[in-house]
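Appendix C: a fully annotated inverse folding record. The material below is reproduced so that readers can follow the format used throughout the book. The structure is listed first as tokens, followed by the designed sequence.
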């Protein structure tokens, strides 16, 4: 069974991804947290190396006005990761949907409730 990540349905790791914000080249590594519709809602970034030392940023809404460099960087990185991690995002959304269906589906809900008349399903 698929477990829900604390910030979405799954965290997809990424390593040393380059992107540009306001002419400044940046490189971040960490995890992109995916929601059920496939959007990246949070980005966790390694701060001082690997391990539990991470900072998590909420990805600003596409229409939100971003006043600081960090918000613009998170927004730009999310756009890059949506392209670079497209297959992983699709897999995460599909796995989550299948997991949810497996929890609610049962033979009685589909086939066990039909009536049989003279050997035929009514």
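Designed amino acids, in order:
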């Amino acid at each position: 069974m698929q477990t829900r990540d604390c910030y979405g349905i799954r965290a997809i790791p990424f390593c040393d991804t380059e992107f540009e914000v306001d002419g400044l080249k940046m490189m971040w590594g960490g995890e992109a947290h995916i929601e059920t519709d496939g959007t990246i809602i949070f980005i966790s970034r390694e701060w001082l190396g690997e391990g539990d030392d991470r900072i998590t940023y909420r990805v600003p809404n596409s229409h939100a006005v971003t006043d600081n460099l960090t918000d613009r960087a998170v927004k730009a990185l999310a756009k890059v990761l949506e392209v670079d991690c497209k297959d992983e995002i699709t897999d995460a959304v599909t796995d989550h949907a299948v997991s949810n269906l497996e929890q609610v589906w049962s033979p009685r809900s589909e086939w066990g409730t039909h009536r049989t008349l003279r050997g035929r399903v009514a």
